[in-house]
Amino acid sequence: MGWVESIQQVISYIEDHLLEDLSMEQIAKEANSSAFHFQRTFSILTDMSLGDYIRRRRLTLAAQELLNTDNKIIDVSYKYGYDTPESFTKAFRKQHGITPSEARKNIGKINSYNRLIIQVNLKGAEPMKYKIVEKESFQAVGVKRKYNCKNGENTQGIPLFWNDVHADGTNDLLFQLNNGDIEGVLGVCVADAAYRENSLIDYWIATDYAGEVPENLSAITIPASKWVVFEVHGPMPDAMQNTWKQIYAEWFPSNPYEPAGTPELEVYSDDDPSSENCYSEIWIPIK
């Protein structure tokens, strides 16, 4: 099955089972993928988590039902997966800006999130510069935090993590320690088998360093891998985010590789992060 067909099949599966207790593992199985990898790919391509998409679709349908039927609000709340009318009202107001009662009275406007449709566009006109390298295992040292990908905690928390390491001087220390082949400071996304079952990742801010682990830092061993290394040019964070989208929307569908599932790297130089000439890289282990 092709890339586009598999994603579309997953969307169809979600829509057909939207009122059920959806299992992330079963959703990913429809795409012949691990739950972790599918959720990560979905969020990269759509800028929202899979959980966000399901919640927004349910609340969109709930609003339509309140507008078009006389069904009781409490019954609608249970139907769309909320244990209490209070939790339903809170989620409904967050999405639509009005309460279910106001929607029933046609007061205010509804924010409708429609079913995702995969469209095939002509892409690839902008070149992607990359190389394939093989590298032995190496040690990186730095700091880490744990995030949940299911609820989008990673997309909100990781930028705050970077703010913290810049503010407390850890970023500068990592640049000073860097003595390995990969020059710069690394953002390392790690999800072992146990983590994947629970949609958890460890995110490291670290550097390639050979030597005794400095005080207040921890070490991680990055396994030997074949890597595809993409150049990233432009200001952060947009350039990095746009390149990730290109990788999953264009490069992987056009090449005979898939992610190996081991730690991926974002490599940041000491260039001005707001500069159009800022250079960075994305390293993805492949098989």
From TrEMBL:
Transmembrane parts of this sequence: none
Zinc-finger found in the keyword field: no
Name of one Pfam family that matches: Cass2
Lineage: Bacteria, Bacillati, Bacillota, Bacilli, Bacillales
Domain HTH araC/xylS-type: 8-106
Organism of provenance: Psychrobacillus psychrotolerans
Superkingdom field: Bacteria
Gene Ontology molecular functions: DNA-binding transcription factor activity; sequence-specific DNA binding
Matching SMART domains: AraC_E_bind, HTH_ARAC
Keyword terms, alphabetized: DNA-binding, Transcription, Transcription regulation
Gene3D superfamilies (UniProt xref): Homeodomain-like (1.10.10.60), Regulatory factor, effector binding domain (3.20.80.10)
Protein's UniProt name: Transcriptional regulator, AraC family
PANTHER family to which the protein is assigned, alphabetical: RIGHT ORIGIN-BINDING PROTEIN
InterPro entries reported in the protein's UniProt record: AraC_E-bd, Cass2, Homeodomain-like_sf, HTH_AraC, HTH_AraC-typ_CS, MarA-like, Reg_factor_effector_dom_sf, Tscrpt_reg_AraC-type_HTH
